[in-house]
Amino acid sequence: MSSPTFETERAALADVVAIPVTPFAEDGTVDQDSHRALLGRLLEGGVRTLTPNGNTGEFYALNPQERRLVTELTIDEAGERAAIVVGVGHDVPTAVASARHARDCGARMVMVHQPVHPYVAQAGWVDYHRAIAEAVPELGVVPYIRNAQLLGARLAELADDCPNVIGVKYAVPDAARFAAFARDAGLERFVWVAGLAEPYAPSYFSAGATGFTSGLVNVAPSVSLNMIEALRSGDYAGAMKVWEQVRRFEELRAANGSANNVTVVKEALASLGLCRREVRPPSHLLPEAERAEVAAIAAGWSI
């Protein structure tokens, strides 16, 4: 039996990889109706790749049952309209169970959150991802890299053992480091996804990325799609016009160590009447002054 080539999955990563929010109801549970409505809005807006249980979905604030629910809702709502890259992580058995659940629900890829343990050896990073990738050889696996010390050679080592490691969400805020890492690992071997969204997409595309993640896309799908179309055509001036359009919104998200990364997105959605603004600790609601600024930005976009 021949090994899968993952051509469809690789193509799906070379796109706007949307990270949907997880809306909460008044009683604090996952608001399933709002969740489906927001997913439908993304799909109708032209988004074709979704990552349930990403950081913008408050992955670490969801319990295991909620993470499974979010996976199931997303796959059911998307149907054949989008590729699904399910976020998995925590300890190895939990990550493996989540990956197998994603597979059983019909997903074709998983994105592995960067290990949160404070002591991560480079060889241990390989071991962690190998254990997950080997458990689901039929799924495409996308490591989420935020560790500036990780060497590209380690990713190549992982892929030598696990050919289903097909893409990388690279989220170190250093375009020069990204360029070197991608070339050390194998520029053509993987699909490189700019993991720091629209603000870093132009610089990362110039160094070899072909997709980028987005939380902003929840609010204004057309804005994110405009950027990737410009980047695909090599129109960096056009891409930077979009960059200027989203700059303040993304600055608000990135402030204070990205404290309000999810909060700003949910606040914008709430200002448009699309879901409640509530987030879970350790995130927190915005002060009133910033709420007004976020609402003004969202209202100014062509939704």
Automatic annotation (TrEMBL):
Claim: Lyase is one of the keywords in the record: yes
Pfam families tied to this protein: DHDPS
InterPro entries recorded: Aldolase_TIM (IPR013785), DapA-like (IPR002220)
Keywords assigned: Lyase
Similarity comment text for this entry: Belongs to the DapA family.
Name of the protein described by the UniProt record: Dihydrodipicolinate synthase family protein
